[in-house]
Amino acid sequence: MSDTAFTPASDGIVPSLVPSFSLYTGARIPAIGLGTFGSDHASPTQVAEAVREALSMGYRHLDCASVYANEAEIGEVLKDVFDSGAIRREEIWITSKVWNDMHGKGDVLLSCARSLRDLGLDYLDLFLVHWPFPNHHPPGCDVNERNPHAKPYIHEDFMKTWHQMERLVDMGLVRHIGTSNMTIPKLEMVLRDCRIKPACNEMELHPHFQQPEFFDFVKSNGIQPIGYSPIGSPGRPERDRTSEDTVDIEDPVVVAAAEKRGVHPALICLKWAVQRGQIPIPFSTKRRNILSNLKAVVEDSLTDEEMAAISDIDRNCRLIKGHVFLWEGAKDWTDLWDSDGRTPG
Ligand SMILES: NC(=O)c1ccc[n+]([C@@H]2O[C@H](COP(=O)([O-])OP(=O)(O)OC[C@H]3O[C@@H](n4cnc5c(N)ncnc54)[C@H](OP(=O)(O)O)[C@@H]3O)[C@@H](O)[C@H]2O)c1
Q1: Beta-strand pair 28-30/200-204
Q2: Atom of ligand 1 minimally distant from the CA of 230
Q3: How many Å apart are CA 183 and CA 214, to the nearest integer?
Q4: In the chain, how many domains are there?
Q5: What is the CATH number of the domain that holds 193?
Q6: If you take atom 11 of ligand 1, which residue's CA is the nearest one?
């Protein structure tokens, strides 16, 4: 990848051709974004160069987060892009997230200010609470490590964090706020008690993990789902792998739709996502894949039969289980996801 200043690619996609979804505020959000989590193997510079490539090809949506530790490098690329005059700030949807160690009083504003400084922006389009727990772990920690300060979801505490998020909207620092890694019971309580409701909910979504009930809940409450790990995260870190995990891009239904078109199965996952109504945010550092992922959601839709066949291959296979956020005394990772329909706290 090049590290020169910004020039639009001649083989890219005209951004106006990329589908978008309407939010309850009336704003439109591009229906595909570039993920920027390097999964512990792509360096901050590599991720930033992927952002440069993606913008040059017609992406107008970036999924960033302070914990990905690459916002400063992405900010340098954004500066080149804006200085070039080829793209204006308001043409790009930029999301960031507050990490779990910044939920305390005053910290949400601090975290937002840091992301804005690093990205070189004066507002974010969307700011998410990355996880609904103040639990964090050292980088690269073992999956079995437990932080003695980790706590289950405590609704009162979450709302203190959420009210700080609402203040950021009042201050004009963020245009929308949203949630991530939530469940129906948690989101029900947030909807009951919030002043500004979440515009988007970022959640794991791919053909083998469709979360149909939660997806419908989110949609029916006027919240836009953003689907992470849309290809089934084939490059995820070792700590997020277990022997029971299934592989979306090897599923015969996905492979058949890919073979019919002569494309990689990853592209079928992305077409399915947008046609279903969620926003996939695939990550890649490879020019070829970044471009084909964008093209996939613009060209050659899946048929109704293919969409129906994919809806039948859900395996309820959650890949990002969140072990490292467990508290002392928790049964296992399913406690994070309210699998009994209730949340503690
Ligand atoms: N909110 C949250 O808690 C949360 C959690 C996880 C992820 N996320 C967000 O979601 C983004 C995406 O998730 P993810 O990275 O876990 O999973 P993903 O996008 O499903 O998978 C990324 C992997 O797929 C490969 N890939 C991408 N396009 C491809 C193509 N066309 N053909 C073949 N392989 C392809 C990439 O490899 P190459 O580089 O070789 O192309 C990379 O290893 C993250 O970057 C992050 O922004 C958010």
Answers
A1: unpaired
A2: 20
A3: 7
A4: 1
A5: 3.20.20.100
A6: 35
**Could you read off the pLDDT of 70-91 as tens digits, one per residue?**
999 999 999 999 999 999 999 9
In a domain, 3, yes or no: no
Pocket of ligand 1 (CB under 6 A): 35-37, 39, 63, 130, 180-181, 202, 228-236, 264, 266-267, 281-286, 289, 292-293, 320
Nearest CA to ligand 1 atom 39: 284
By residue count, the chain amounts to 345
Tens digits of residue pLDDT in 191-204? 999 999 999 999 99
- The helix (H) or strand (E) run that includes residue 322 is none
- For 128, the token pair is 């998410």
Q: What is the pLDDT of residue 1?
A: 46
Return the pLDDT at 343: 76
> What does pLDDT average to over the chain?
95
- The boundaries of the domain holding residue 210 are 15-231+278-289+322-328
Least confident of 6-15, 123-132, 178-187: 6-15
Retrieve residue 91's tokens: 């043409």
* In a domain? residue 253: no
Domain for residue 282, yes or no? Answer: yes
Structure tokens at 207: 């053909």
CA of 335 to the centre of ligand 1 (A): 25
Nearest atom in ligand 1 to 206's CA: 20
| Number of the ligand 1 atom closest to the C-alpha atom of 267 | 31
